[in-house]
Each structure stands twice: as structure tokens, then as C-alpha cells.
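[Meeting: bench + compute handoff]

Bench side (C.D.) handed over the final construct sequence. Compute side (W.E.) agreed to return the predicted structure before the next meeting so the bench team could plan truncations. Sequence as handed over:
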Amino acid sequence: MTQHQAVSPKVILTVVAFGVFVAADDLTVVSTMLRQIIFDLQIPLPDGLDRAAWIVNAYLIGYVVVMPFTGRLSDIVGRRAVYVGALGLFLVGSIWVPLADNLGSFIVGRVLTAVGGGAMVPVAMAVIGDVYPAEKRATALGTLGAIDTAGWVWGPLYGALLIRFLSWRWQFYLNIPLSLLGMAAAWWALGGLPQPEKRERIDWVGTAVLTLFLLTLNLALLNSGDVQSAGGFASLTNPSPLHQYTSHLYLAATLTLAVFIFWQHRLSVGRREWGVGSATPHPTPHTPQSPAPLLSSTLFRRPNFTPAILINFLVGSVLIIAMVNVPLLVNVLELDVEQAALISGTLLAGMTLAMAFTAYLGGRLTERYGYRPITVAGLVLASVGFGFMGWTWAVGTPFGQMGWQLVILGLGFGLVTAPVGTAVINTAPADQRGIAASLVIVLRLIGMSVGLSALTAWGLRRFASLRTTITLPDLPLTNPAYQRAVVEGLTAVTTRVLAETFLWSAGLLILAMLAAFWLHKESR
């Protein structure tokens, strides 16, 4: 790529971070609007819960599936075109959604906003890689991570305010001027970004197969348990109509992944045979017909790349456990539903705000000390947080105690963000930064889906095993003392199961620490 930068890197960071914040807000904002949306779209309850779940799931799947293609597309056609185009799709979806009068039309609009929002994140990371030198990228990527996390935190609160004073449609009405402003700013600021030195052909076959893999994998994971979505996203628990086809979806995901790997290998071998990309290319009329692989295997052989994305996968798989189990545990301990929602929201806000703070701090520290020590420090903090939660959370644990332990957890998660993302961006060649950045996000989101699925399966089995150990008094079933003993026993068992998942999470973070020692010490 050739460089013709005309705008300050800080201005460019501000512009792309603005779009990322708007997309992050849109990802979580429906969590507090869901009841009103279901009512306005006239979805019958409880029979319609399986269909209503797609209000959330359609966005999550579209958000993940689009990332690899758009990340790679930005490598081929340039960052500005893809980033502005992503905002354009987000704008179209934001116009479509409030005009929808039925669930099908609403989901179409949500998918459009998901595709636009998902495309912006890896392209924004690649933009930072283009405009910042290697020794200064960590702070910039940490800032972007902090802003992305802040959008997650702001979304549910913003949605609640809109429902209180306006309506859920205003979320999308207000997206329209924000999208237009973002498009204008991006077109101006990104005009001087590096441009591809030559236009590669797009690997459409690889794109289609990888999209099918991500689609079937996410559908299978979403339908592996009763929990459809989590934390700040939603809390719908009805199995979807695809629940009975979960094994078929896993099989389809396995087959499409195998086909994708075969196709990428074939393209790589073919290009080497024709001399494409070599120091002494062999002229042939067939060379231009060979597209570049969507995902080059050489990325995984570069220093730091594989351990960084492995760490991101493991962090995602345990981050979702905190986001799911904290609200579940609070709802078990707190009988008042509205009070439970307020408490769990406050606890998760403390964790995510701590994440936002240390995402920026982690970037500054990475520039000074390198990837490994900051990543290890973050993983140690997060594992300590999970350890406290696993050993001390029980019936009667004060919510204040839960709060400071979740802050420790959030501080650890945030510290990991910048060094891992920077390690990937710095090790990728300039013409593969887009696809590399997309893998950072995709692996974390897939990790969240895998963690959620495994959590559901293990938790249900563990609960079924422990409930047989409940000791009940020898009283009639209708006796209030008997009924109280049943409730107390089930509460204790549920709390124990949820606390045990925190200990398992600490164990997974120890595995991530082992991968962190595989990272090179130097950040440049």
C-alpha cells in the first residue's frame, strides 16, 4: 500500500471511533426496548418468544458473519470505500427499522444495521494500523477498545431513557443524522489513507464458504442451550424452531470449515505455482485469474498472531460467563424483579466501565512494556476476580462485595484488549490488516458463543445432579415450611452452580496465560 496521509492520526481515530461507538450502542440498546418492540410488533407471548429472539440473534449473527469479508475487502479496495459503505448500510437499516410494521420487516432492517455495524469495527482497527506507527498503535487501539466498550455500556441506559420519554423508534431516527455525519467525516478524513498498490481479485468462493461456516456455527451454538442471548443483549430463553436441527448445523459447520481450508490451500498453492507474489514472478496470462486467498495461512505463522487470537477466544468464552451469570444469580437472590434488574445492571456497568478505563491504560502500558507483561497482568487480575467470585459468592453475599470483585474482573479484561489487538495488527502485513483485525473480533465473539453454549449444557447437568442432594423436612407438600425449604434448597444449589462456573472461568484464563508467554516481549 502507498501512503498519502493528509489528516492528523488523532482526527482519523476520532472519526472511526465515532462510527464504532454508534454501532456498539446499537448492539445493546434493544435489551431495554425489547418488551415495547414485542408489543408494538404484535408478537404473541409466550408462544412468540422463539420468533422474538431473532430481534437480538439476527443482529448478533449478521454482526459476526460480515467481519472477515469486509475486513479483507478493505485490504483490496481501500479502507475509505468500505468504511463509508458500512455506514451507508447502517443508515439504510436505521431508516428501515422504524418503518417496519411486522417482525419479518424489522429483522431485515436489523440485519442491515448489523452488517454495517459489524463491518466498521475491523476496518477501524486496520485504519489505526495504517496511520499510526507500530510503536504508537497500542494506545490508539486501546482508545478504540475503550470507546467500543463505552458504547456497550451506554446502549441499555440510552434505550431505557428513550422508552421512558419517547419510543424505541427514536433510537433509529437519531441514527440517521449520526450516520450522515459519520459518512461525511469519514469521506473527508480517510481520503489520505494508504491505497492498495494493485487491485486483487476477491475470493468469492472462499467468502461464501466462510460465511456459511460462521452462519451455521453461530446458529448451532445459539440453539445448543435454552439461553438464546445474554447479558446486555437479551434474556429470551425459549428454544428456537432450529433447536431440533442443532446436530445438523454442527455437521454443516464442520464440513464448510473443511471446504474453506481446502480452498484456501488450493489458492495459495496455485498462486505459488504461477509465481504470484514471489520475488521473481513468472509472466503468464493465467496469473491475473487467480484471486488472493481470503485468509492466508501465512498469517498464522507470523510471530504473535496465533497466541493473540487464541487468547482473545478464551477471554471471550469467559467474558460471556460473567455477563450471563451475574444477572442470573442476582435474580435468584433478589425476589423483586425490577430491583433485580437494577442491581444486575449496576454490577455489570461497574465491570464494563472498569474495562473501558483499563483498555486505554493497557494501550499506554503496552507501548512502554510490550505485549506479554500487560497481557499476563490483565489475565492474572481477571482470574483473581473470578476466583473471588467462585469462592465467596453464595446466598447472603452482599451486593457491594460482588460489585468490587466485578470491578477487579473488568480491570483485568480491559488490560488484555490493547496488547492482544496490537500484537495482531503489528504482525500482519499492510495488505492483510483488515482480515487480521476481523479475526481479532470474530474469535472473541465466537468464544462468547462457545462459552455460552458450554455454560448452558454444563450448568443444566450440574444443577440436575446437585438438586438430588437437597434435604427436605418430613412435612406435607402443602406445608409452608416445606415449600420454604424447597425454595431455599433450590436457591442454594443454583447459586453454587453459578459460582462453580466462575472457578472454571479462572481455569480457562490460566490456559490463556500460558498462551500469553508465547507472545514476544517487544511491542515493535
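W.E. noted at the follow-up: Residues 226-239, 273-288 have pLDDT under 50 and may be disordered. C.D. will use this when planning the next construct.
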